[in-house]
Amino acid sequence: MKTLAEQLAVWQTAHPSPEWRHPLLMGIVNVTPDSFSDGGQFFTQEAALKQAHTLLAEGADLLDIGAESTRPGFTPVEADEEWHRLEPVLIPLAREGVALSVDTTKASVARRALVAGVQMVNDVWGLQADPDMASVVASAGAVVAVMHNREVVDVSLDLWDDWRRFFDRSLKIADRAGIAREAILLDPGIGFGKTVMQNLWAVQNMRRLEAYYGLPVLLGASRKSMFGRLLGREVGDRLPATLAVNLYGATQGVCMIRVHDVQAHRDMMDMTALLSVNGMLRGETE
């Protein structure tokens, strides 16, 4: 399996392309008792490793392993407890050569994970929650996903201005720490400190975000609450809506899509590639 850096290099070399470009598929494994979508299902080492291997078999390019929920109203976890949950899952997978991301805002947890062989840090506070996070990422030469976040929802917010303020700050932190520009992905932060309409606007403007900063975009909309509010769907019934948003994101050139349902997304991407490359969209018959 290619390293994450190698996969990103291949993607970036061919982007933009006149033909369909597959986003990388990041499979989600929550080693938590309280995540909004699957809390408790993969909390044990056995269950988490089984799910990880299932997602890899379904076509995940990398796995994002998290041990602290980030849903609204989540219960914070101390760093030692977070690592206690992560260690028995990350280490075996790293030994297998799996491309791994750790979903954490804590520098001490990220440091342990990177030493163990993790290649990416997924920070939902964009390097701004822990002052040591950027230096930890830089020292390891790791990839980092910098996500936009807000403490408070503001219905009058100009999201474009807020994106720029937030990402400008995060990128200055990254630059001072010595994180390579090519190792950074931006995440618009779907579902984090935003209204439903702001979330929709964020999805619609990902290409603008990529163009402004010249950096690849990671989209994480899988099973989010906006689908419940817009369509009245419970968490287990949000796959069709998730597929629609992620397909739209793929057409907008996102680099990576973070998903719970890898097989459905792999099939969707493969069929879209077949339609695009083989001329079937031009009306050719079988």
UniProtKB/TrEMBL annotation:
Domain Pterin-binding: 23-270
Cofactor(s) needed for function: Mg(2+)
Pfam families given in the database record: Pterin_bind (PF00809)
This protein's UniProt keywords: Folate biosynthesis, Magnesium, Metal-binding, Transferase
Known EC number: 2.5.1.15
Catalytic activity: (7,8-dihydropterin-6-yl)methyl diphosphate + 4-aminobenzoate = 7,8-dihydropteroate + diphosphate
Top-level taxon of origin: Bacteria
Pathway membership: Cofactor biosynthesis; tetrahydrofolate biosynthesis; 7,8-dihydrofolate from 2-amino-4-hydroxy-6-hydroxymethyl-7,8-dihydropteridine diphosphate and 4-aminobenzoate: step 1/2
Coiled-coil intervals, chain numbering: none
Similarity field: Belongs to the DHPS family.
Biological function: Catalyzes the condensation of para-aminobenzoate (pABA) with 6-hydroxymethyl-7,8-dihydropterin diphosphate (DHPt-PP) to form 7,8-dihydropteroate (H2Pte), the immediate precursor of folate derivatives.
Protein name: Dihydropteroate synthase
Organism of derivation: Bombella favorum
